[in-house]
What does this fold into?
Amino acid sequence: MSLPMIIQGGMGVAVSNWTLARAVSRLGQLGVVSGTAPAVILARRLQVGDPSGQMRHALECFPYPDIAARVLAEFFIPGGKSPTAPFKNSSMPQIQLNADLVELTVLGNFVEVFLAKEGHSGLVGINFLEKIQFPTLPSLFGAMLAGVDYVLMGAGIPRAIPGALDRLANGEPAEMKIDVEGAMPGEEFLSKFDPRAFCGGTAPHLKRPQFLAIVASATLAMSLAKKSSGRVNGFIVEGESAGGHNAPPRGPLQLNAIGEPVYGPRDVPDLDKIRALGLPFWLAGSYAKPEKLAEALQAGAAGIQVGTAFAFCDESGVCPELKKKVVQQCLAGNARVFTDPVASPTGFPFKVLQMEETVSNAARYAARERICDLGYLRHAYRRSDGTVGYRCPAEPVEDYLRKGGKLEDTIGRKCICNGLLATTGLGQFISEGESELALLTTGDEIAQLARLIKPNRDSYAAADVVRYLLSQTK
It folds into this structure.
């Protein structure tokens, strides 16, 4: 398999949708779909009536038609739901997903990858967050059923994933240890998925995708290369200027004058040590320039990963009206991103684009009633009786405290799940004239996005990004 020079970042909840990934893949690079909550995305696309028919087309191609039929019967609304009707939610993920959510999760991942790969021979990847552990195994299986070529994972230490890919590719049951706060010494909590049971007795042998771990240090890269449950095929080395979740700074947390985490020399990845591992790697975080691509290649990298530049192109899943406002901000020179140390329930710093009518507006967000109705960033914790409970620092404070959480963990937390869904036009309807606020995450390069926009234009395509990045390569 030839290595792509450009990897399109797997951004947000359906920002990196199948349309964007397919466009990039057809250009000879690695298009990547988001693996964050595709079950919810599929259910909501069906509830708005699936206007393009693409969801139903992909479901018709799913190899287990009875499962596809159950999901269609549960969520599809011909003509779409009323604009003022709330979306019907599926059950929230937990260590052992219920059967309905397993089916929806496998299907959601299958649909995104299947549509991204349809009609061309290019490579397609899927991006997951290690912090979202509960749906990982059925998500991997769904993507593999559609023939995914690469699996990317960051926001944690994904040692268990390479081995899980090996087992799922062979049609064998897979399991992975789940992080449970307060677990006793020697106590393990496992998520399990058996493809044979899902497939009705016999599971197919599938292509094992390449696994790329997203890392912020040589130490983590070396650990994953040596101690993972299976083969790691490469790394994406991501700096703190990249969008979405960032690795916390090493050492005690220090904030600058405006409240952002301060990164220092210890946070700069040692590329010599990463290169010495002998595995391909790509550099990410403010690399969306032809000269930065050349710099990465000179450093021994296979290429670069680019997120922000693709996030606001024509094919991405961001609402058109939000894209237009972001482009206007960039052209006016006033686009600004804030690295929020507390917004994400994961505890990782999270970059938030500042825009009046979004989650970044503190007053508007404070007026929002706290709710946790999706649950993808909930933490598992051990109750005193040995059972497992679930809590999220962004849920109602009284609920979090009742579950043994600390008050200080709730301060400044944002509902990332609902905010990212709203960014793609699938936000929950709350009440008359009110829906969930969008949350836009971008890298520091957002301020330079205007370079991609031609005179007298207010938009650009994925092909414009690829053409620009490759403009100085031979």
